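Worked example 2:
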Amino acid sequence: MKIQPSLRAGDNRTGLALAADRRGMLDIPHDLGPTTRGTADQIVRVRARYAHGCRPAGTMPRKPQVSESQVQLLDLLGARLAFERTGVRLYDALIGKLDACGDFAGGPSHGDLVHVRDEEHAHMRMLEGLIVEQGGDPTAVTPSANRELIASRGIGEILVDPRSTLLDGLETIAIAELADHEQWVALVELVREIRRDDLIRVFVAAQSTEDEHLSKVRAWISAGRAAVRADVDIDHRRH
């Protein structure tokens, strides 16, 4: 059972503070001199100029032509749809990680992860239907959806990395669950503000389900950390 990579000393060559030849290494930049006259403040100013002159990262589709509040709703619905669709793939990757690494006491079973994955999929289908009901296109990438997709890339990279463990995957997917919780809260706040009482109960129920997911992941992480501590203790006694 692979809970986490070995904590024994290996071929890790990062770190400079304890290196015996660090003085010589630190002299190299001084001897070569600066490669640019730029400073951190100048970098900030350049970025600001780009920010003032660039187009937005995303726009809403030309159709449907709806009110401002409806545009906000369709944007956030698109964001949640993008994230829930990604969530299905993330949990598929986590299921594969469990199959490859094995489980640990108190951690998720295969069925546990499939259950959460299926609930993410149900949310995805529900959001598709709601977007269609509002006259929108569920295949459109709205501005907020674009942001969500970019933000979630690193999570997927860790989950599909063959070197990462199940605990790595759980620690990482907790980031997704925290973000998911906050964005469902934002949707609930919006529909209350625009007086869409027909949607409040739907979104509150989805938020409650996501809260359950977060609680489960936190419990699994806690169990995984306990398993790591026990594993490290056994390893130390052996050596």
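The mean pLDDT is 88. The radius of gyration is 23 Å.
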